[in-house]
Amino acid sequence: MARRFVNELSEQETLDEVFRAADKQLRANRQGGKYILMKLADRTGTISAMLWNADEKILASFDRGDFIRCQGRTQLYNGNLQAILTEVSRVDPDQVDLADFERFDARAADDLESRLREILGGLKNVHLRRLGEAFLADEPFMTRLKMAPAAVTNHHAYPGGLLQHTLDLIDLAAAIAPKYPNVDFELVTFGCFLHDLGKIEELSAHSEATYTDRGQLVGHIVIGVQMLGEKLAAVAADSGESVPDQLRWQLEHLILSHHGQLDFGSPKVPMTLEAITLHHLDNLDAKLAAATSVIEHDVSAEGNWTHYNPTMGRKFWKGQ
Q: Is the pTM of this model over 0.85?
């Protein structure tokens, strides 16, 4: 019998399938009983699941990242599909097809890396080009960049998503460049590359994206400025010529301001034409990717609208 992937599940469906346990937590309900809250994953996505009347023994019977057989039923809760489980059991990896769970597309990542190398290597500003070459020559960094997600949820939340998001922004910048001659689009392009690099350290890409301890304590914006500082020092040591202070400050500002508002996590608001451009391109790509994901994964069969999405505060038109 063919397996049922996460993106094929619908409400009120009997479930008997193997998933990867992306996360697990033992919680207590209002009556004092215990249950396990889980995130189940395969190559098409994730679904939240709960196992009622659980205890520490059941929790210890499998680890995060293990394959587990899940029996139960699906249901809708606040517009989201979830699974209510009656039984879980660990499955040996030899008994599953790993291709059903691998979300990383190595060929696509290689293609994106080639495009990134061509773009950064073609920059006319010698300081930006040298800086780009320093990042590209760092093999451990590039390996992690190709695997990194752009988020835990919302947009590009899959292995390789960060590199896809980066190239999408660079393409958007190239598309609007002729309209805004006063904007330095080489600087914007490099900002597209830099702005989320700290997520390589902020997020763990193993099996399913989660926040690292450093990510929780420091955050990707500060980490990104630190990573930039390390590469600026390396370029100065290798070439004998430091990146000019004005350019360094602008690059730091692009990272620090790309969320656009202080209450959205940016230490600074955008104060250069390039920072304003980067913020709005980033916001456009992230919001459209998030909304598209909501529409594509909505399980409502009623009418042309998705269920209400609490994260984005609205329903979305699905079309006819």
A: no
